[in-house]
UniProtKB/TrEMBL annotation:
The protein's annotated pathway: Amino-acid biosynthesis; L-lysine biosynthesis via DAP pathway; (S)-tetrahydrodipicolinate from L-aspartate: step 1/4; Amino-acid biosynthesis; L-threonine biosynthesis; L-threonine from L-aspartate: step 1/5; Amino-acid biosynthesis; L-methionine biosynthesis via de novo pathway; L-homoserine from L-aspartate: step 1/3
Its EC number(s): 2.7.2.4
Native source species: Algoriphagus ratkowskyi
Transmembrane segments: none
Entry keyword set: Amino-acid biosynthesis, ATP-binding, Kinase, Nucleotide-binding, Transferase
Protein name stated in the entry: Aspartokinase
Listed Pfam families: AA_kinase
Reactions it catalyzes: L-aspartate + ATP = 4-phospho-L-aspartate + ADP
One example of a Gene Ontology biological process annotation: homoserine biosynthetic process
């Protein structure tokens, strides 16, 4: 029997009616049984839902923002469907459910769980619209709620996969359907053992595709992007980028670890463990080869530039005139783990620990509160973390022109620089 193929389409590939029509053309001559399509929320929908959450949390009126988000989806539907199509009452129903959730109480203490109940509506909306449009184009496709497949723990916003239950769900629920029809589902979302919605971390739809691939023993995963494949830098930020024709799993994992946004960092591991190749291709030029990530790739030591914005540098100084010891680092990491904060860079000196983390709502103030009894704490916000893999040292000065460097760290194959505009 033919092995399952997984296609994942991100927010840019379903951002408007033309993009969805383009998606349909990509699938038209490729779609068959044993095919899973994973879609993200449309365009910037996740950001807009986060704005609704922020307004709700601050006790501000959010109905106007919700109406704008609803109209955005309805406008796409009007361009794709006749007025009497069933999609319109379905969109209406999703927004009724969204407001039902938004009417529930929210606080800093239940924010993560509340976040996961709200934020998944983006994927539910986009998957319904895309599925209905593909069916209107003569492609018979089944819709699947990913929360019935992706089983997780209750670590809201950063849920960990229950691999045994997820595989069992996929084999018992999804595999029989795939023998007859292609299936379309959502990225990013799952559910815990009691059925409460969870999410896998921002941009987690790539990870969903990898989870499904590993659970179905798939033949390949293809991620469709608005770039030609995996590049050595973000073309929106850097000029003269280079396309990797192929990468091995280790090199790709290293790039995602440091923040390369083309692939979610958790995507590589399940595919590498199962030996499933990953293709990154352009939905703008679908017949181009893109990048293949697999175990047999030749390693290319091309300088690679990764820029993470909205970073926070936290400096922790011991207050009792002792030197930094393992217990101090353990204490800091214990608090970071409790707050689900990932360290993007760590540097120690005789009496200080410096960490660079992503900016997250509430998390900085909670971290400072936990650590102020043991350290003198200072921090800087609004920074950038530039990572250069396999650096050509002649290019570094140009990258720092107009910036103040707060911290720099060098290893044999990597340079990391925390910088801010002068």
């Amino acid at each position: 029997m033919t092995k399952t193929q997984i296609y994942k389409f991100g927010g840019a590939s379903v951002k408007d009616a033309l993009a969805i029509q383009n998606l349909a053309e990509i699938l038209r001559n490729r779609l068959r049984n044993n095919f899973v399509i994973v879609v993200s929320a449309m365009g910037k929908t996740t950001n807009q839902l986060e704005t609704l959450l922020s307004l709700k949390l601050n006790g501000q009126e959010y109905s106007e923002n919700s109406a704008i988000l609803k109209e955005f989806h309805l406008e796409i539907c009007r361009a794709l469907f006749p007025d009497e199509h069933v999609i319109f009452p379905k969109i209406e129903n999703y927004f009724i459910l969204l407001h039902h959730e938004l009417n529930k109480p929210i606080s800093k203490h239940n924010y993560d769980e509340y976040y996961d109940r709200i934020i998944g509506f983006g994927e539910l909306l986009s998957s319904r619209i895309v599925m209905e449009f593909l069916c209107s184009q003569g492609m018979l496709i089944l819709w699947q709620d990913a929360r019935e497949l992706i089983s997780t723990d209750s670590d809201f916003r950063f849920a960990k996969i229950d691999w045994v239950r997820t595989r069992r769900n996929c084999q018992s629920q999804l595999k029989p359907k795939l023998e007859q029809f292609p299936v379309l589902t959502q990225g990013f979302i799952g559910a815990d053992s009691t059925g409460r919605p969870t999410t896998l971390g921002r941009e987690g739809s790539d990870f969903t595709a990898a989870i499904l691939a590993a659970s179905l023993d798939a033949g390949s995963v293809t991620i469709w992007k608005d770039v030609p494949g995996v590049l050595n830098a973000d073309p929106k930020i850097f000029k003269d980028t280079t396309l990797f024709q192929e990468l091995d799993y280790e090199q790709a994992a290293q790039m995602t670890f440091y923040g390369a946004s083309v692939i979610h960092p958790k995507t590589i591991k399940p595919l590498a463990n199962a030996g499933i190749p990953l293709f990154v291709k352009s939905f703008l030029n679908p017949n181009e080869s893109g990048t293949k990530i697999h175990s047999l790739a030749k390693t290319e030591s091309i300088p690679t530039f990764i820029l993470k914005k909205d970073q926070i540098l936290v400096s922790l100084k011991v207050t009792d005139f002792t030197f930094i010891e393992e217990k101090h680092i353990h204490l800091v990491y214990e608090q970071l783990q409790g707050l689900k904060l990932r360290v993007n860079m760590l540097q120690t000196s005789a009496i200080t620990i410096s960490i660079v983390i992503d900016s997250q709502l509430f998390k900085l103030e909670q971290l400072l509160e936990h650590l102020k009894g043991d350290f003198e704490v200072r921090y800087n916000e609004g920074l950038e973390l530039l990572t250069v893999l396999h650096p050509d040292h002649d290019t570094i000065p140009a990258l720092l022109d107009g910036f103040e460097v707060l911290i720099e760290q060098n290893t044999r194959n990597t340079i990391q620089i925390v910088r801010r505009v002068k």
